Automatic annotation (TrEMBL):
Residue ranges occupied by any Aminotransferase class V domain in the UniProt entry: 49-335
Membership in a protein family: Belongs to the class-V pyridoxal-phosphate-dependent aminotransferase family.
GO biological process entries: glycine biosynthetic process, by transamination of glyoxylate
Protein name in UniProt: Aminotransferase class V-fold PLP-dependent enzyme
Organism phylogeny: Bacteria, Pseudomonadati, Pseudomonadota, Betaproteobacteria, Burkholderiales
Entry-annotated residues carrying N6-(pyridoxal phosphate)lysine: 206
Annotated substrate binding sites: 354
Annotated source species: Ramlibacter rhizophilus
Length: 410
């Protein structure tokens, strides 16, 4: 649709669960001139984004920034902490969990994937009791790391990471806890230190509202200790050189200068106390998710995530009725209304679509997205039980965003 010399009129509605729409403030920050990454100004920028990301991860320990997509940070977490042939326990919540498992296997790890039968794991969050049972059975402590996805972007399920931490503790198992919060961070509540996570992995193009291109590892002291003995080969991903130079705000190789301008702006926006700081961010996305779920319920369609407590504040996966190809509905919506929705991934291809409510949203951008969905579903011949648009409007009207906009005259 979009070529270099053609763009449809009006704004494109980018409602896929990442990349999310980049706010103008961030685009303007990115447009500043590129500076010398070894020059005197850069160190201040480097220090500022590293400190900002510690606040976003809610950690006092180091954060590493890579010029790479989230997949690179997945690999970095494993190669810095593990050795060839190490056993790792992973949990299949959906497509992204399976991709991380594949990556671990390719690195030469003995990656074990805990999965519920019949694809049930793709409809729920991590069942921490299963992890606890598996770890209790591992009396010889062969398992060196437990890897889970915080927000499974392929299904719309957010897992209880605190419960996974408790499972490790209950089993008195020394494995490291590695968590992918690539789409969770800065939209769903996430606490690296308080939840005892050893490596948290994230990326720029989801809750952080940046274009794709940078990703993160947040570390724990135990992860750093593990990295001193870990044997998997690493150079580009190695934490030691990064941390050494990061101390003065610099990087061992050329960082994405302009994206870091954007990251500084994103941290300012997310941490701004006038809009409630991180707690405000989490509350806003919870409320938007409730509005979208009210719409899906009114349409009479099924949610991909059937476990109420795990339904994601980041995105909502909507199952289309039998016989309706979700991708055809998505294509129609894109063509008619210039609205992009997320496709069904892996085993869910054609069975469902995903509505993103991460990053830079407000009630009206979401209402527009829901209007596009409703019109498209009807045009595709899907019989809807009722109007999701009306249900979401009613939900947003009845549940005002606390302190949303400063009112003039008060
Ligand atoms: C987006 C995403 C990834 C992959 O990140 P890339 O930036 O595409 O490499 C991995 N895990 C989750 C949960 C994601 O949402």
């Amino acid at each position: 649709m979009l070529t270099l010399d053609f763009h449809p009129s009006g704004r494109h509605f980018l409602q896929i669960p990442g990349p999310s729409p980049v706010p103008d403030r961030i685009l303007r920050a990115i447009s500043l001139p590129t500076i010398d990454h070894r020059g005197p100004e850069f160190g201040a920028l480097g220090k500022r984004v590293l400190a900002g990301m510690q606040q976003v991860f809610q950690t006092e320990h180091p954060v590493v920034i890579y010029p790479a997509s989230g997949t690179g940070a997945w690999e970095a977490a494993l190669v810095n902490t593990l050795s060839r042939g190490d056993r790792v326990l992973m949990y299949e919540t959906g497509h992204f969990a399976s991709l991380w498992h594949k990556l671990a296997t390719r690195l030469g790890l003995e990656a074990e994937l805990l999965a519920l039968p019949g694809g049930e794991g793709w409809r729920k969050g991590v069942q921490a009791t299963l992890i606890e049972e598996r770890l209790k059975a591992d009396t010889g402590h062969a398992i060196k790391a437990v890897c889970v996805v915080h927000n499974e972007t392929s299904t719309g399920a957010t897992s209880d990471i605190e419960a996974v931490r408790r499972a490790l503790d209950a089993a008195r198992h020394p494995a490291l806890l590695l968590v992918d919060t690539i789409s969770g961070l800065a939209a769903a509540d996430y606490r690296h230190d308080a939840w005892g996570v050893d490596v948290s992995i994230s990326g720029s193009q989801k809750g952080l509202m940046l274009p794709p291109g940078i990703s993160f590892n947040a570390l724990s002291p135990r992860a750093l200790q593990a990295s001193r003995v870990a044997q998997l080969p690493r150079s580009f991903w190695a934490w030691d050189e990064m941390l050494e130079l990061n101390a003065s705000g610099y990087f061992p190789y050329t960082p994405t200068t302009n994206l870091l301008y954007g990251l500084a702006e994103a941290c300012d926006m997310l941490l701004d106390r006038r809009t409630g700081g991180l707690e405000g961010v989490f509350a806003r996305h919870r409320r938007w998710a409730e509005g979208v779920r009210a719409a899906v319920e009114a349409w009479g369609l099924e949610l991909q995530c059937t476990e109420a407590a795990s339904q994601s504040p980041v995105l909502t996966g909507v199952v289309t009725p039998p016989g309706v190809d979700a991708d055809q509905v998505r294509h129609l919506i894109h063509q008619r209304f210039d609205l992009s929705l997320g496709t069904g991934l892996g085993r869910l291809k054609g069975r469902m679509f995903r509505i993103g409510h991460l990053g830079d949203c407000n009630d009206l951008t979401l209402m527009a997205a829901l209007c596009g969905c409703e019109m498209g579903l009807k045009l595709a011949g899907v019989r809807l039980a009722g109007s999701g648009v009306i249900a979401a409007m009613a939900h947003f009207a009845a549940h005002p965003q606390p302190g949303a906009l400063p009112c003039s005259g008060t």
